[in-house]
Amino acid sequence: MLRRLFVFLYIGVITSFILLAQPAFALEKVTLQLKWNHAYQFAGYYAAKELGYYQDAGLDVQIAPLRPGADVLHEVISGKANFGTGSSSLLLSRQDGVPVVVLATIFQHSPYVLIARKFKDNQSIHDLDGKPILLRRLSDELIAYLKREHIDQKNLIGSAPGMDTIEQLKAGKVSAISGYVSNEPYLLKSAGVPYEIYSPRSADIDIYGDNLFTSEAEIKKNPERVELFRRASLKGWEYILSNPDKAAALVRKYDPTITQQKLDFEISKINPLIQTDLVPVGFMNEVRWKHTVDIYREAGVLNDNFSLSGFIYDPNPKRDLKWVYVGLFIVVIALFLVSAFLYYIARLNHRLRQSLEKLSHLSQHDVLTGLPNRALFTDRLQRAILKAKRDKTLLALLFIDVDHFKSINDEYGHQEGDEVLKTFAKRMIACIRDSDSLGRIGGDEFVILLEDLPNASGAMEVAKKIQSAVSIPVSANGGLIASTVSIGIAEFPGDADTEEGLFKCADLAMYEAKQAGRDQVYFYSSAISQKRESI
């Protein structure tokens, strides 16, 4: 008996020793390659590491400054680094066949500017015409800027590796240099050199700045790790922007030589470029990227057949509705391009800027009614949900379908049917506040976004107004066309917490209204979903 007890104790001790000797859960080692030395513009990544956001995501992140002679893109694509920071010129690499993917946009506006030595009052960019201008590589947006300002570019100079562009400016060898609004101006000011700054945004060249990126291979091999890294990085940036007083200590941990004055200058110039008061940090909009593509084409560095396909990261690739929206957007763009081609044939003297403005509008609005289309309305709904979450307010989505509209087209013709839709759109606009949004997402389907509602009855009041306004017959060919609408209502919070979910709930409620005999208003409920699933 004692022998058996001894054996059990011996096995227990050995087992405990083995378990205690096992190493703790190992973090995945990844590298973030910066595009140059440590600076405040990378503070969000420092915060994510030092506050444990990366560690909470199971990641051991090394933040590496750029080695002399190295290239951040090569480090990532070759696999030496997993992630990198870069400018919007990543588009040019994508055109060259480099499988780069942008994960998130940190700067909503580019920090690149032209910096000229000041030599007189009322100096303007046109004083640089015909003078030598020194541009670093990846400054292609500045080339487009010079073209728009009709500045002679025959004296453009490319910087050589290791060249001190500020010394070139101070020595009078060039009249202007490209630079970061948060860097070179501070150095010139510290040296007592007067200067003038010229921003491309003054010529409506407004593109994304710093972007977090990776490779297609990294996304394919480690999709979960990519998303965890992206979220932890954005969490770090949210902390920095909410706690600016903590930034100095974090940055100095990575660059002890930076002064408080330099940090204050960088913060004052960089934070306005991020603009979290308008969009969440990391937000990307495909329309903005298309605008950037047009800018680079204008600079002559991007081909006309360049495609954004695969360039913009999709954190939810299996969400079917998103691809429906993308498909609709592509169809609208394709239709416009055909129209634009015929327009250019007849009106060769129209300026490019007018064409771009028309392209931007038509890509986001319904051609018949002028209302926001599905893509633009979905973008507004996304922002409204974020605002409602932050402010803890109520919003409602109304899904409106014209009853028996096919019969109207069959009896009166499509032209009269279009007039009915336009009339209904005007009447519905008169029923909502200026802060609300009305969109057309299908042939006879409309949607309304109501924000900051005091209670659910507010949505029902608007729905009843719309029913009453639409019930008034429309004049057509000497007669009157009468119709009604079926309306489904979904609310946030309560029914769904995403734009796709709200669309689905409101759509189900609208179909329930039709099943009930049309000309009805139904709120979404779980019972409706159960009923539809049982059919």
Structure description:
This protein has 535 residues and is α/β, with parallel strands linked by helices. The protein has four domains: 28-108 and 208-286, D-Maltodextrin-Binding Protein, domain 2; 112-203, Periplasmic binding protein-like II (D-Maltodextrin-Binding Protein, domain 2); 320-363; 374-534, Alpha-Beta Plaits (2-Layer Sandwich), CATH 3.30.70.270. It has helices spanning 2-21, 43-50, 53-56, 72-77, 90-95, 140-148, 165-170, 184-190, 216-221, 223-242, 247-254, 260-274, 286-298, 320-346, 352-362, 374-391, 405-412, 414-429, 457-470, 499-515, 526-534; strands at residues 28-33, 59-64, 83-86, 100-105, 112-117, 133-135, 156-158, 176-180, 195-198, 211-215, 394-402, 437-440, 445-453, 474-476, 479-481, 485-492, 521-523. The strands form four sheets. Strands 2-1-3-10-4 form a five-stranded mixed beta sheet. A five-stranded mixed beta sheet has the order 7-6-8-5-9. Strands 12-13-11-16-17 form a five-stranded mixed beta sheet, sandwiched between helices. Strand 6, helix 6 (140-148) and strand 7 (156-158) form a beta-alpha-beta unit. Helix 17 (405-412) crosses helix 18 (414-429). The longest helix has 27 residues, at 320-346. The protein is globular and about 80 Å long. The N and C termini lie far apart (69 Å). Mean pLDDT is 87; it is low at 15-24.
